[in-house]
Write the structure tokens for this entry.
Amino acid sequence: MTARTDPAVERRTPLSRDRVLRAAVELSDREGIDALSMRRLGQELGVEAMSLYNHVAGKEDLLDGMVDVVVGEVDPPSDAGPWQAAVRARILSARRTMLRHPWASAVIVGRRQASPVVMGYMDSMAGILLRGGFSVDLLHHGFHALGSRVLGFSQELFDDSSDLAAGDEMQAVMLQQLAAAYPNITAIVQQVQHDEASVVGSGCDDQAEFEFALDLQLDGLERLRAAEAAR
Amino acid sequence: MTARTDPAVERRTPLSRDRVLRAAVELSDREGIDALSMRRLGQELGVEAMSLYNHVAGKEDLLDGMVDVVVGEVDPPSDAGPWQAAVRARILSARRTMLRHPWASAVIVGRRQASPVVMGYMDSMAGILLRGGFSVDLLHHGFHALGSRVLGFSQELFDDSSDLAAGDEMQAVMLQQLAAAYPNITAIVQQVQHDEASVVGSGCDDQAEFEFALDLQLDGLERLRAAEAAR
DNA sequence: AAGTTAGTACGTACGGTGTAAGCCTGTCAA
DNA sequence: TTGACAGGCTTACACCGTACGTACTAACTT
């Protein structure tokens, strides 16, 4: 069974926590988080499932480690410039990371406790705000207000990427039915489709929407910070 | 095995989609979403797991139905008053609902597509904004900015409810270690603990934080709306 | 050189999951 | 009375995470 035809040559590169985590991230990127099982991951590494338990404590620990790998990919903060620019740049870097690993946001919100790596990320982000003149109190509020946005994702309630991927006629009929049930939302859909009729790809510009929401928050926080400083 | 000692009397009240969904919600409220399996739910209803499949298409459909039940519990919108008050009241009602069903937010964000009930909820919310003078475009942006907040929950990255539930001495030691690793975040924790030294319960006031973030968003949107109207 | 020990991979097994397929029975219309 | 049928039950399957015991390997000790 084992491939040790020539033990000196066909030596299997040994497992390690790092190799396990990387393989898990790579598998999830490629086939989605649902495809990630201990057996499947072992198979991916040419190893039995139980061997993985020598390097991760269990599936929970595996997921924790994967989150750390992903969060570790986010650019470190830059200390120069006003706080808004630094926060903005870092959050947008985080967003790019999350887009590379679409499963990550769901896994992150599913963790019970933030890992040291995530805590470190948060702390450095907090540092930017404090150096930018935030009171501890406002910093605290600000973190709550930003929510998961600090990690580069916003919570979308519906997946508008593939909302209406039918033919034009079909789409018109469906739209009419939709309009009867949800007149207001249909107005949005029609507007978006009209605006981007020339642009390739249906649906709205997620990147622009993310930045809009982010800037709305940052502006609001800056206003509060300035008011606090004036007092 | 079956309890049909007297078929005319011991008749089991028949299943129905509604009864299945209600039992699922009730079980999840009581023992958490992880306790919800088809077998366990059947057991709860005095029925075999496979019998449930006569009323729900599968577990996914079950979860969809449960979301509908929960969203259906949110108060309908009030048409009176300014848009901000109406939106605020509805979102806070949604939040109360989500607090009653702690599993719901995770399930909602896990759904692939919004169900008709959720769509209806969104649509009525959109209606409030449109009647409040929003352009379709700004409405669209606003929904993205609010994110999951429209459904009454914000995405918390860490669970600060039971963060530090150890003894005082232990806590002091841990805090010191924490301070070395995460100086900025520790500042927040200490401030919160100091502020609420007299108040029962550790951690911050989640309700206040939610409202802070919500109002920050609503104020920002109102500012944009007014600017748009002036143009 | 021989013996010991620690680490790591393997194999098996257990109890859980969702659900496909077929059976059995009570209810009701013709 | 008969037939259809809806809605329950039973069995079975493929998968999951992981506890446990075994066996091989490499390094260190004597």
Notes: Residues 41 and 47 of chain B are 8 Å apart (CA to CA). Chain B has a mean pLDDT of 86.
